[in-house]
């Protein structure tokens, strides 16, 4: 509380981080190790936030940290010029991801998504971008449209001129007819340059998509000369070392990466794809797409990328985190089944778990009071999150859990015990 009270005077809202659980006040964290984190008062939490997805090896993975410390000591953090780690990092990504032949590193997922839009328009010479409702592609002007919940349009677009959305075409997930219509109707309005896709559905799978959804997008992109852009900021190197594209065998034209590629070290973003398309980022002035960043591809981020991916591969980090997530999903569903009056449930995409208490993402948008329902359900979900956090579980937004390779049977036992206790506090109806 003390830190929050001070922070409020200097930092708007008292928090910088959009992942912060800030009701009734945000917790200030002191340190992290393995699957555990500790707040400044010394309280211990089982961490399922994993920094918002980047951590797969566990917090403070020593072999990785040692490499970075060595670079800082011996070489310094950045020169603004190319380093060998840039090539090693690119090579590691190209080796793993089937749709990637070239990589351009940037400083965040948001930037990489922005670059992907620009490349798609420059390469195709077309204008429109289809954005699937409920998905998140960073906070740039064009992408804050129907975020979190489909059909909410400019609800969260305060400070963004309406003109920014002039060429954004909103399509509701799983609306196959609407999708095809969006391609067709925009043919003579500049054409569709790209479709932005979260491959497991919006908000990292909070809005799951029909098994044919991505295949249909791929088919329509081919038919209309449009680039399919997979935003794999969360799924890349978490769902699979080859991303969703490898797991589902759907090869996008462009891939957006972030988070896991630097494993918690700063400056994490990349746009990648087929050579022919990525070459729009090269060439002389007037020919190339303008993307960049002072600290983009700095040696620390690039070494973090190279070594993190290497250690993940060597340790089978994705497989281990997935096995744990599957075990926990089953165990929690068994526990929740003892309270049918509550209707809580869990599902997972590999090492990405979603737990539903009030299921505010699933409100029927046709209901006249849909928005009110979403808000009130969200508030109740937040309250459940406060209680679980207070008893030692750190999750993302009270609906999501990311696992890492170090979560073990003890973590599972403790997680179940906390939930069992929290359930016992809720009166049976
Ligand atoms: N795309 C997706 C799918 C994301 O989940 C996020 C971040 N949560 C971003 C893009 C933006 O990445 P960053 O926060 O690094 O800008």
Q: What would you note in describing this structure?
A:
By secondary structure, the chain is α/β, with parallel strands linked by helices. Helices cover 38% and strands 15% of the residues. The protein has 13 helices and 14 strands. It has helices at residues 2-8, 62-75, 84-96, 109-124, 176-185, 202-205, 213-224, 243-248, 275-278, 299-315, 317-337, 370-390, 409-425, and strands spanning 29-33, 36-39, 44-47, 102-106, 128-132, 168-171, 192-197, 227-231, 254-258, 269-273, 345-349, 352-356, 393-394, 400-402. The strands form three sheets. It has a seven-stranded mixed β-sheet with strand order 4-10-9-8-7-5-6, sandwiched between helices. A four-stranded mixed β-sheet has the order 1-2-3-13. The chain has a three-stranded antiparallel β-sheet with strand order 11-12-14, with helices on one face. The model has no long low-confidence stretch (mean pLDDT 95). The structure holds 4'-deoxy-4'-aminopyridoxal-5'-phosphate.
Provide a short characterization of the protein structure.
The chain has 429 residues and is an alpha/beta fold. It contains 13 helices and 14 strands.
Bound molecules: 4'-deoxy-4'-aminopyridoxal-5'-phosphate
* Main sheet makeup: 7 strands, mixed
Return Rg in Å: 22 Å
Ends: how far apart? 35 Å
What are the secondary-structure elements, in order, as H or E? HEEEHHEHEEHEHHEHEEHHHEEHEEH
Mean pLDDT: 95
